[in-house]
Write a structure and sequence with these properties.
The protein has a single domain (4-125), classed as Rossmann fold, CATH 3.40.50. It has six helices and five strands, in the order E-H-E-H-E-H-E-H-E-H-H. It is α/β, with parallel strands linked by helices. Bound molecules: coenzyme A.
Length: 163
C-alpha cells in the first residue's frame, strides 16, 4: 500500500529547516505533498504563488515531493488529497502545545488522518520564517538559512536593506 503524507505550513518563505524535514520525509513516505497554506491572517510577505514557486525550486531534487497551494481547511484538503499522514516539524518544546492543539483539532475533523512529527537537525532548530524575514529586512546574512533562490527573493523584497 502506498502512503501519502502532507506537510502543511505557511512557508513565508521556505527555509533550509523546512527542506531538511521534507528530505527526511521523502525517504519515509511514497509521496509527500508540501501544502502551502494561503494563511491570510498571517499577512504573508510573499503571495501564495510566489511561496509555491520558491518551495518548488527548493525541492526540485526530490522526485516524490510535490508542492500545492491551498486555502480553507487543512483537514478538508488532506482528505481531497487522500493523505494518510499529516506531518509537522517540532523544533523545540515551545512548539509542542500549539502542535498538540492542531493535531487534536485535525483528528476531530478528520479521524483517519494521523499527525506525525519530525525534528529538524539542531543547527536549524532556531530558524523560523519570521526571523529569516527580519534578518533579511535588517540587512543580515540569511544565506546559511535559505536556498539561493529564496535569498534572492528576499533581497528583492527588501531592496533597501543595509548589508
Ligand atoms: N524549520 C524552520 N522553521 C520551521 C520549521 C522547520 N522545520 N517548522 C516550522 N517552522 C516555523 C515556520 O517557519 C513558522 O514560522 P513563522 O511563524 O515565523 O512563519 C512557524 O514555525 C510555524 O510553522 P508553519 O509551518 O508556518 O505553520 P503555521 O503555524 O504558519 O501554519 C498551518 C500552520 C498552515 C498548518 C495551519 O495554520 C493550518 O492548518 N491552516 C489551514 C486552516 C486550518 O485548517 N485551520 C484549522 C487548523 S486545526
Amino acid at each position: 500500500m502506498s502512503v501519502k503524507a502532507i506537510y502543511p505550513g505557511t512557508f513565508d518563505p521556505i527555509t533550509l529547516g523546512h527542506v531538511h524535514v521534507i528530505e527526511r520525509a521523502s525517504l519515509l513516505f511514497d509521496h509527500l505533498v508540501v501544502a502551502v497554506a494561503e494563511s491570510p491572517n498571517k499577512k504573508p510577505l510573499f503571495d501564495l504563488q510566489a511561496r509555491v514557486e520558491l518551495a518548488e525550486n527548493a525541492v526540485q531534487h526530490l522526485d516524490n515531493v510535490s508542492i500545492m497551494g491551498f486555502s480553507g481547511l487543512l483537514a478538508k484538503f488532506a482528505r481531497q488529497q487522500q493523505a494518510k499522514v499529516l506531518l509537522r516539524g517540532l523544533r523545540a518544546v515551545a512548539d509542542f502545545e500549539y502542535e498538540l492543539q492542531l493535531a487534536n483539532m485535525n483528528r476531530a475533523l478528520e479521524p483517519e488522518l494521523d499527525s506525525l512529527f519530525l525534528t529538524p537537525v539542531e543547527h536549524f532548530s532556531y530558524i523560523s520564517s519570521t526571523l529569516v524575514r527580519e534578518v533579511a529586512r535588517l540587512g543580515g546574512d540569511i544565506t546559511p538559512f535559505v536556498t539561493p533562490n529564496v535569498a534572492a527573493a528576499l533581497k528583492q523584497a527588501y531592496p533597501n536593506a543595509e548589508s
